[in-house]
Write a structure and sequence with these properties.
- By secondary structure, the protein is of the alpha+beta class.
- The chain has a single domain, classed as glutathione-dependent formaldehyde- activating enzyme (gfa).
- Helix content is about 15%, strand content about 30%.
- The protein has three helices and ten strands.
- The strands form two sheets. The protein has a seven-stranded mixed beta sheet. A three-stranded antiparallel beta sheet has the order 1-2-5, with no helix packed on it.
- The protein is globular and about 40 Å long.
- It starts with 5 loop residues before the first strand and ends in a 7-residue tail after the last helix.
Length: about 160
């Protein structure tokens, strides 16, 4: 991460956010759900600690999309900024395209490539998985340590 803060926002620019620390990990998912949800060839998921995401301006609208998952959108334009799951109480998944400088959230892995469009050529130097990955062997050690510390700090019954 550079010394500059990681910032982003919605399409109408009324909602702005900042990350106080680097993301834990970013992956590009080529599953059919992500293709449909993003309206393109794959979805970009940037995993951050909840405590590191700060909304600077604008209003969020929460929408429960499943018993476990809530998405948070700009109340003005509807851009989805991030999602939270009760399964992962210390993290949010930020939509990679909402970050101003996409270079800071370049994918560390491509998942569900068995559903990847054949015309899409992936870089050979980024790990690729037919389905999902094991974060214990794919994420950087520093990210795993930060996640473990955040999970350990949760109140009992939350992790």
């Amino acid at each position: 991460m550079t010394d500059e803060p990681i910032v982003g926002g919605c399409q109408c620019e009324s909602l702005r956010f900042e990350l106080k620390a680097p993301p834990l990990f970013t992956h590009a998912c080529h599953c059919l759900n992500c293709q449909r949800r993003s309206g393109t060839a794959f979805g970009m998921s940037t995993i951050v600690l909840r405590r590191d995401l700060i909304v600077l301006s604008g209003e969020l609208m929460a929408k429960q999309t499943s018993p476990r998952t809530t998405i948070y959108q700009c109340a003005s334009c509807g851009t989805t900024i991030y999602a939270g799951s009760t399964r992962f109480p210390s993290t949010y998944v930020v939509r990679g395209g909402t970050v101003d400088d996409a270079n800071v959230v370049a994918p560390g892995a491509h998942i569900w490539i068995k559903r990847k469009h054949p015309w899409l050529v992936l870089p050979n130097d980024v790990p690729q998985f037919d389905e999902d990955y094991d974060l214990r062997t794919t994420w950087p050690r520093e990210a795993l340590d930060r996640l473990r510390a955040a999970n350990d700090a949760l109140p009992s019954g939350h992790g």
